[in-house]
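$ ./design --mode recover --in tokens.txt
reading tokens...
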């Protein structure tokens, strides 16, 4: 009597649900090349925009330091009415309308109301301010530091974008491998069902094949979900809307570049140069605080127009002068400020030396990691080829009834894993190359 085997109902329902989810979550995709992605990140990434804003802020602070040599000009217009004896006498004097009768004590003590409208232009011109000049140098060095940091931020985002794009490529590659596994699992399921109906296989073997099919479908669903997650990460880097599924035009493949062991990192690297400029800014600030002991020299002048009528310009006068000011003691505030700026300079120097040591160590580690992943890539490729050959042999023997079902399923699982491991190693190797390049340039 021929036995007929039916799949459990829950397996059929589960498979249909998986297919429905896949259909809903993966509709249309947007093709994306790496060059387009990289250029979009450079133009619209939020982190890059923030670094550019920091440069603008630093430039604005530096522009304020121009007050060290540029004049301060103020224009004012004032109108008053008064019966105050002193103000009334001064207003008449400024308007050049004072008469002999105004010196009468009764008029001086109890003057009539008088109006006075004053147009005044004041100019203050710094002449010598040595501390201010060093503050200006510090502001300029800070601008250069932020520019170099912005440049390094772009380089970091380029590395991050390359990693994100390869993750998307890897997600599609994993999905492709699992789709191949799904096809093989479906063929094996059909074959197992036929052989069970002929009484060649036991029910436990058919259930094992069915379980393998369900596992592959489940992994495929998670792999396709990972594609959407990688697409969301790419959208975030590009500063665009999420919920877009991207399809990489460029396929994941091994980069073939030769690298020599680095002796040390380049000191002209943008992040190192930025820290050097920051230390330079602290040095100028320290010198500026020390120069606060010296006096400052400023010129000043004003030109005034007085009249008793609104917008009148009857009386005119000017004032010119210069002031040498010297703060001899300000309650030990200056000494504390100098001590603080000196400590900040010392801290910056230590941070600079420590960062260089860290950078050199990171570069050496990146090179060793590159060599290790290169060797791992060779071995993983060999393992993938061997597992493929073993699967083909067992599949042929299984069709002839010479292999167990469990052995065939083991070979299929192993080949799928070795394929995924190989493409993951390709990803790690390419990223190791990109990291080494990032740290050595």
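writing sequence...
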């Amino acid at each position: 009597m021929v036995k007929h085997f039916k799949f459990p109902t829950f397996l059929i329902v589960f498979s249909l649900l998986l297919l429905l989810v896949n259909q809903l979550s993966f509709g249309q995709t947007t093709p994306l090349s790496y060059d387009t992605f990289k250029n979009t990140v450079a133009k619209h990434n939020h982190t890059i925009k923030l670094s550019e804003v920091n440069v603008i802020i630093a430039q604005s602070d530096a522009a304020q330091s121009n007050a060290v040599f540029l004049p301060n000009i103020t224009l004012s217009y004032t109108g008053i009415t008064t019966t105050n004896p002193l103000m009334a006498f001064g207003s008449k004097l400024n308007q050049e309308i004072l008469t002999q009768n105004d010196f009468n004590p009764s008029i001086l003590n109890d003057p009539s109301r008088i109006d006075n409208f004053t147009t005044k232009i004041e100019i203050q011109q710094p002449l010598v301010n040595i501390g201010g000049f060093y503050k200006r140098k510090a502001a300029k060095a800070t601008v250069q530091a932020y520019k170099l940091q912005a440049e390094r931020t772009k380089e970091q985002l380029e590395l991050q974008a390359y990693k994100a794009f390869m993750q998307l490529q890897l997600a599609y590659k994993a999905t492709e491998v699992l789709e191949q596994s799904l096809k093989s699992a479906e063929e094996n399921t059909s074959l197992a069902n036929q052989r069970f109906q002929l009484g060649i296989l036991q029910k436990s073997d058919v259930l094992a094949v069915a379980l393998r099919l369900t596992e592959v479908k489940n992994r495929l669903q998670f792999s396709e979900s990972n594609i959407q997650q990688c697409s969301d990460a790419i959208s975030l880097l590009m500063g665009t809307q999420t919920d877009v599924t991207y399809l990489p035009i460029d396929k994941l493949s091994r980069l073939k570049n030769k690298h020599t062991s680095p002796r040390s990192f380049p000191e002209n690297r943008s992040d190192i140069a930025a820290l050097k400029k920051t230390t330079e800014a602290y040095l100028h600030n320290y010198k500026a605080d020390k120069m606060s002991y010296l006096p400052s020299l400023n010129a000043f002048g004003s030109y005034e127009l007085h009249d008793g009528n609104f917008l009148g310009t009857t009386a005119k006068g000017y004032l010119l002068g210069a002031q040498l000011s010297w703060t001899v003691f300000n309650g030990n505030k200056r000494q504390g400020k100098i001590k603080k700026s000196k400590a900040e300079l010392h801290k910056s120097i230590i941070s600079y030396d420590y960062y260089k040591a860290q950078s050199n160590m990171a570069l050496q580690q990146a090179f060793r990691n590159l060599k290790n992943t290169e060797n791992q890539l060779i071995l993983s490729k060999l393992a993938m080829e061997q597992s493929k050959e073993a699967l083909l042999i067992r599949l042929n023997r299984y069709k002839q009834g010479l292999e167990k079902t469990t052995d065939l399923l083991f070979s299929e699982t192993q080949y799928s894993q070795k394929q995924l491991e190989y493409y993951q190693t390709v990803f790690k190797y390419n990223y190791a190359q990109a990291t080494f390049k990032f740290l050595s340039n």
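exit 0
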